[in-house]
């Protein structure tokens, strides 16, 4: 009886296997189901992804993460508070509120320029009162990027993205083809292999060059002959030469190239055209264009990250969700070094970046991650600038460089709807806090970018010893 | 009887001792190395590591060529330069000593992808140019007699001879007979296809791509 049952089960299994193989072959147009599944598996997104979003030029934190009530910090009290929010100077554009924003249920108050980013208070922590120890652009930027105070203006450690990839990549079963991607931003590697180096691109075209077939094509039959030749067994001498694995590594890289090219990932980054795309891909791209409100940029293309912050956010989402990258560092907004500009210029330039980030977080909140849960449960976003701008407006109507800074950490690994630390109510001085609670404490200690980066790394289960500081328990989720 | 046997054993032992000690004792090779052949007039050679006692390794660890080496190698082997090599140098691992202070010679997807792109550009351009040159000036098939740009007319021996020439040109290494025969078989199929589609440059151009994207070109 049992034998009969076993035989029946075997036949049924054999039939199902054959049926699924047939269905796979039919559905994927000649590509076997196994090959298709392997390809999908090979490009699965990382379980924990990271985004490092940089606002270039030094942001005015009164307009974003560390606002002040203008009815309390009035022009009349300047000599006492040394703080002037200046929100009334935004009144030329009625879309800007003239008071700090606090969405319903939020423990975090935001400045008027954060736009749609404020809607995501429920998945973020804001860190205020960070001591940057510098008011030089390159120094502050490299400090936050690496979590280590530079030597002079020279970076003294790997970028945090490189640290993350350097530690995680060797352990990953499904290695992303471009694990560390940097759009228009510096990247450093001082102690990891080349696998952790960022692919630094200044435009979407650079990325497309990597993901798309080369411009010089061979006849498809000749192409196949080359592929077959590469798959032939190697001689004993070749095996001996490869005893340390370099040749295997090269051959694996070539297979990975094939996988990436076969997946035609480049088409997902060509937001400006759906020509030749299968229906599903065209619909997905249309949804991306609509979600991020992509518009044609100055070069006539909507997919160039130089054209808008929105296009950059869409590229970040695509790179992570398609399994191309695990860490993306991106220059999200620029034009913030407004010594002579108006408050409105600063606010407009900031808001583009914040709105794009808001759309990116919405995307992560709504999209399912293949390993379960939503994407926002699998991604950590650090939003930073090199320093902030002075709390007082200068004689030219702008603001100069200020040493106290703030940042936002969104998603996995940090507390949500939470404010850590505070800047002083006189001249927005750097804060001192109790590290465990994040509450201002006159007996507490100052905190630096090192602490923020150490917290992010510790939350991801990574070795943060290179930071030489302990993570902030009051920030860890 | 017993005494006679003991005397014989003692005699044999003494004889053996005398015969061993009269032999020249050779100095054993250093542990974990193989003896090299003494060429007499050459300076002393370094002993090769014995792969059996070195986890299967022999010699130093192979390395990927740097961007500067790649640039020179392409120029030396094909006589022309890949147009994108300077634009992609940083991506291929060249240090700029401002942001990147060490040369990356990592073999990764980006290197493999761009080397493939570069090989295609350079090889097809070289093969196209060779079609219009007299035999001695050609790079990829200098000793081949071409009839109507048709490489299917080449004899097996001519194909193998040209492949051997290219192996030395691109890798500085000779082919094994088995591998050369296998490549020759591929070439015949490629040449037939190139003739069918009337793209004669793709015949030796494709083989050039195979040589240039082979690990023996990109590592040393």
Strand order of the largest sheet of chain A: 4-3-5-1-6-9-2-10
**Helix content class of chain B:** 40-55%
The low-pLDDT segments of chain B are: 13-25
Q: What is the helix tally of chain B?
A: 8
Largest interface: A-B, 48 and 54 residues
Q: In CATH terms, what is the architecture of the domain at 48-203 and 305-467 in chain A? A: 3-Layer(aba) Sandwich
**Which percent band covers the strand fraction of chain B?**
under 5%
Biggest sheet details of chain B:
2 strands, antiparallel
Proportion of residues in extended strands of chain A: 5-15%
Can you write the helix and strand succession of chain A as a string?
HHEHEHHEEHHHHHHHEHEEEEEH
Average pLDDT rating of chain A: 87
Please give the CATH class of the domain at 48-203 and 305-467 in chain A.
Alpha Beta
Top keywords for this entry?
heterodimer, A: 477 residues, alpha/beta, Alkaline Phosphatase, subunit A, two-stranded antiparallel ribbon, 14 helices, B: 220 residues, mainly alpha, 2 domains, 8 helices, 2 strands
Summarize the structure.
The complex is a heterodimer of chains A (477) and B (220). Chain A has 477 residues and is of the alpha/beta class.
Describe the structure.
The complex is a heterodimer of chains A (477) and B (220). Chain A has 14 helices and ten strands. In chain A, helix 12 packs parallel to helix 13 (343-366). Chain A is globular and about 85 Å long. Chain A has 477 residues and is an alpha/beta fold. In chain A, the strands form two sheets. Chain A has an eight-stranded mixed sheet with strand order 4-3-5-1-6-9-2-10, with helices on both faces. Chain A has a domain at 48-203 and 305-467: Alkaline Phosphatase, subunit A (3-Layer(aba) Sandwich). The longest helix of chain A is centred in the first third of the chain and has 26 residues, at 2-27. Mean pLDDT of chain A is 87; it is low at 1-41. With 220 residues, chain B is mostly helical. Chain B has two domains: 2-53, no CATH class; 67-218, no CATH class. Chain B is 50% helix and 2% strand. Chain B contains eight helices and two strands. Chain B has helices at 2-21, 67-78, 89-92, 109-131, 156-171, 177-196, 201-212, 215-218; strands at residues 33-34, 48-49. Chain B has a two-stranded antiparallel sheet. In chain B, helix 4 packs antiparallel against helix 7, helix 5 packs across helix 6 (177-196) and helix 6 runs antiparallel to helix 7 (201-212). The longest helix of chain B is centred in the middle third of the chain and has 23 residues, at 109-131. Chain B starts with a helix and ends with a helix. At the A-B interface, helix 6, helix 7, helix 8 and helix 9 of A face helix 4, helix 6 and helix 7 of B.
